Amino acid sequence: MSEEKVVLAYSGGLDTSVAIRWLIEEKNVDVIALAVDVGQERQDLEVVRRKALGIGAVESIVKDVREEYVEEFIAKALKANALYENKYPLVSAMSRPIIVKHLVEEAHRHQAKYIAHGCTGKGNDQVRFEVGIAALDPDLEVMAPVREWDLTTREREMEYAAARGIPVPTTKKSPYSIDDNLWGRAIECGVLEDPWAEPPSDIYTLTSDARGHQCDEAEYVELSFEQGLPVALDGEIMSFHEIIDRMNELAGKHGFGRIDMIENRLIGVKSREIYEVPGALTLITAHKALEDLCLERDLLHYKLQIEQKWSELVYNGMWYSPLKEALDGFIETTQQLVTGDVRLRFFKGSCVTVGRRSPYSLYDYNLATYDEADTFDRDAAKGFIDLHGLPTRVWARQRRKVGKEGEV
Ligand code: ARG
Questions:
Q1: Which range of residues forms the domain containing residue 91?
Q2: Is 15 an annotated catalytic residue?
Q3: Which of 29-43, 55-69, 205-219 is the least confident region?
């Protein structure tokens, strides 16, 4: 037995499997493997658990944290309409903080000095792990085998594994790097590294091709929200988790929720990313539609800026940070009246809001209508415009002095 312990974030894949042996051999530590279930498309986690023990972990733990993930993490992302660079619903960025939380918990339970992860040295995830760990326990130390070792090619890694009896994948490796959880799926590498190349159709598993005939009919769905979170689908009360699963299925069937983007990683590199996020995008679309109805104008406008900042912080690994926590407080107070129903229509890759209603709607028919019911005071408009435009009028007069008029 070695002196020190390390808790390793274990996925069951080649990298983290090799990492178990590498940590034992190179760092002389006892490895405790932790696999966290955040709703990945599944390998059998009991198999994963046993695999770690077979490779030499002194203990192997599987934790199903899906409920906590939905209630404590995804709920905040939905209330924030979180889209990094206005597009990406933060799939991977969302799962890292909860994985970190459980890594730290297990490290404390086992009195481990170290936590290890299998991230490369080029991505965002290493940052999310390490900053997250530092925030929850600044005294824990991190080991990052994949960043450190010299098994730089897949062949060398396979040789290393084979020489030590670590099970190596028998099927040809998919050229893609995939990360997923119940909020969606991220796909990169392979041919996708050419930003001009159209993504091949076989990379998708959650969404069907909108040009296909899986669904030639439009389909309507009614989502009900209470204080910013979904509580029912077509009038049937169900959990947020269940609603995410159902929307992933339904929107995916209609081919809605594919994103092809060039994104800016925190470490300074632009990368080409494909996402499948049918449920996440549907729920954000519906949530935004309800907020349009229920949030007062200044609050709505201000919240748009907060949403961007929130998404950027979470993308950059700052889930556990004072600013992100403070913004959570702001966002939470905005949701008090975000209660009501949204009707969506899915058809051939699109998801369109076709109706919204709320007991707290700020939409006033009598103010908005151009019919006889109109109660809007048109006379007040004249004075309003005079004052609203006053600074512009004064400026225009002065500008004349320099011989400019009506120019832009
Ligand atoms: N670029 C995305 C992010 O930083 C996804 C990264 C996911 N990792 C992967 N192996 N595909 O959030």
A1: 5-172
A2: yes
A3: 205-219
